[in-house]
Amino acid sequence: MIPPVNYRFSFGPWNISEGADPFGPEVRSAFPHEEKFALYRPLGFEGVQFHDDDVVPGLDDLSPSEVTAQSWRDCMAINLDAAFFAAQAAADIMQKQGSGSIINFSSINALLGPANMPGYVTAKAGLVGMTKALARDYGDSEIRVNAILPGWVVTDRQLQTWLTPEAEADWMKQVALKQRLQPADVANLALFLAAEDSRMITGQSFTIDGGRT
Hints:
Blueprint: H1 33-40, E1 48-51, H2 69-97, E2 100-105, H3 109-112, H4 118-138, E3 143-150, H5 156-161, H6 165-174, H7 183-194, E4 205-208
Parallel strand pairs: 1-2, 2-3, 3-4
Helix pairs in contact: 2-4
C-alpha cells in the first residue's frame, strides 16, 4: 500500500493570491530558479513543480497584423519560455532525488484558437508539444511530465474582471456540464497527476472544461 502523502502546490506568480507573487510584484526582474527553490523548500514544497501563467494585457489582445517581432517574443517568453526553464531547473533537483512530477498548464485556447490571440494560442499549443518532449527525455529519471488544459475557471479575479453575467450565460451554452469550473476541480486533477496514483501516466494533456471542447 502506498503511504499517504501531503502535497503542497506553488502556483505561478500570476495566480498566487489572485495575482500577488510572494517573492515580488507581478512585474519583476529575473529570479533564478535555484534561488526560488531554496526559498520554497523550507515552506514544504518538494518534488512537484507546478507551472502556470496567464494572459498578459497588451501582449495577447492583438490581431495577426498588429503583432510585432518584440510582442511575439515577449509572449513566447512569458507563456512558453518560463515553463521550459522552470521544468529544466526542477528536473535537475528531481533527478537527484530519484523521481518527480512536472505539471504544465496549457489552455483550451490551444484547441479552440480564439481570435486576436495568435501568440497566446501558439504558446499554449507549444506547451502540449513540450510536455511530450520532456516526458520522453526525463522518463529514464522517473520524472513524469503532464499538462492540464483548463477551461474558464471561476476565481474572484475572474468574477471581478471578466466573468459578467452575459459572458457566463454565453459560456454555459457551450459546455456540456452546466456548472462553474472551480479552482478545486483543477487542483484535484493536479493532485492526481502529482501522486503515485498516476505513476504510469506521462506525456499526456488533460482537458478540464465541463465539455466545452
